[in-house]
Design goal:
Elements lengths: L1 H21 L4 H37 L1 H12 L37
Protein name: Cell division protein FtsB
Membrane topology: Single-pass type II membrane protein
Function: Essential cell division protein. May link together the upstream cell division proteins, which are predominantly cytoplasmic, with the downstream cell division proteins, which are predominantly periplasmic.
């Protein structure tokens, strides 16, 4: 009789272990859900930071004229009346693109004629 009870308990233990490792709600599914939760939490943090930056931009644009002017200058090329526009070309000059004028002819020495 004791053998049958031990056998039944061992079979139940094996069945429960199988369900734990491979069944619905088992270890694999929990691990998958934890990974998914981690990804979603990271995405939410990134989006929250972006939303806070956008909210700050909106508030700045609503309250200050300087922010509107700065954005118009950078994105639309705003130049106020009376201002002078300077454009700086930051590309390095190459020898082929730069043509220097020829040097002036050398003057003859003072007593050579």
């Amino acid at each position: 009789m004791l053998r049958w009870v031990a056998l039944i308990l061992i079979v139940m233990l094996v069945g429960l272990q199988l369900k734990l490792w491979s069944g619905s709600g088992g270890v694999r599914e929990v691990d998958t859900l934890r990974t998914s939760l981690k990804k979603q939490t990271d995405e939410n943090a990134r989006l929250l930071q972006r939303n806070q930056a956008l909210a700050a931009d909106v508030l700045d644009l609503k309250q200050g004229e300087q922010a509107v002017e700065a954005r118009a200058r950078n994105e639309l090329g705003l130049i106020k009346p009376g201002e002078t526009f300077y454009q700086v070309d930051e590309r390095p000059a190459t020898a082929a693109s730069v043509s220097l004028p020829p040097p002036p002819p050398a003057a003859p020495p003072a007593g050579a004629q």
